[in-house]
Design goal:
This protein is mostly helical. The chain has six helices and no strands. About 75% of the residues lie in helices and about 0% in strands.
């Protein structure tokens, strides 16, 4: 689990080096959906269509609230050698790992408290 969090931090730096903070914020909002998806896969939870719509609405609400950030011209701050595709892929992998790590940690705590060595 610590390795996953370390990889997530490295991927965040790679993403922020290659895309602006506004784009990073937009893609980071996908953590809500990846966490809910891994919750259904790993913990066998089932969400009603109302809850899925609420999650999507929450994600869009946060995106609209952060609109002044991602609508600004932050491409000026990016260096000339920035790779937009690499930054986007890095943040999407980081978001997926974040959703997995949080749900996996919850599963470990709920299934076997002795396996958790703190």
């Amino acid at each position: 689990l610590a390795l996953i969090y370390g990889i997530m931090n490295i991927l965040s730096f790679v993403a922020l080096r290659n895309i602006g903070a506004g784009m990073f914020t937009i893609f980071a909002q996908c953590k809500i959906m990846t966490t809910a998806t891994f919750s259904t896969l790993l913990l066998k939870r089932s969400y009603s269509s109302t809850k899925w719509r609420a999650l999507i609405g929450l994600m869009f609400g946060v995106l609209l609230f952060s609109e002044p950030i991602w609508n600004s011209a932050d491409n000026v701050n990016n260096p000339a050698d920035a790779n937009q595709l690499l930054g986007t892929v890095a943040v999407m992998i980081e978001v997926t790992l974040s959703g997995f790590a949080s749900i996996y940690f919850e599963k470990v705590i709920k299934t076997d408290p002795l396996q958790l060595n703190i």
